[in-house]
Amino acid sequence: LKSELVTPVTPGSALISVYWHKELNQIITGSVNGETHVLYNPNISQGGAKTVMLKAPKRRHIDDDPNLTMDLSHGIGGDAVILPGGSAPSAASFASRHPTIGLTASGKSRDPRRPHIPNTTPFAKSNADEAYIREHIPLSGMREEDPREALLKYADKAKNDPMFTNAWADTQPKTIYAELSDEEEDGPDKKKVRR
Description:
Blueprint: E1 15-21, E2 26-31, E3 36-40, H1 49-54, H2 91-97, H3 122-125, H4 130-136, H5 147-152, H6 155-160
Antiparallel strand pairs: 1-2, 2-3
Protein name: WD40 repeat-like protein
Keywords: Repeat, WD repeat
Region (Disordered): 103-124, 164-195
């Protein structure tokens, strides 16, 4: 076999896959550095890369040319600004001539990199005052209220005018509790010891 044409596809980088498409008559290669190339003969190949290459190039806007635009995300270096007098601008002299530029009406900085300060709340300064909680936070008094006393407020009304148990008022027996003596301990029964 005698090679008619030798084409270096990716110099300095090895090819990892080569595929020949018999219907398109084109060779597709993939290399280690992630590049993909299509090799074809415009006289013999049909479709594929030939169709793409026959189309007119897409019209581009002047701003799409990277040679004519600057990437401002990195910022402009101090040496990029040149004054007609030949001297570099002085930030101190500008600030002394315009003391209010860069400040809002309240005197705060307009610097976009300045962090946002959250609104101050009564809890942000220190621990909340007990009187403030009692006045401004609803149901905060329930913590000090004894639940037994709250139920005993309605005990007389429930005894005199029972709403739910009135149907059994005639047949309901009176509850009799055993009286506790000083000698008896009010506690759980001791468990039997297993042997």
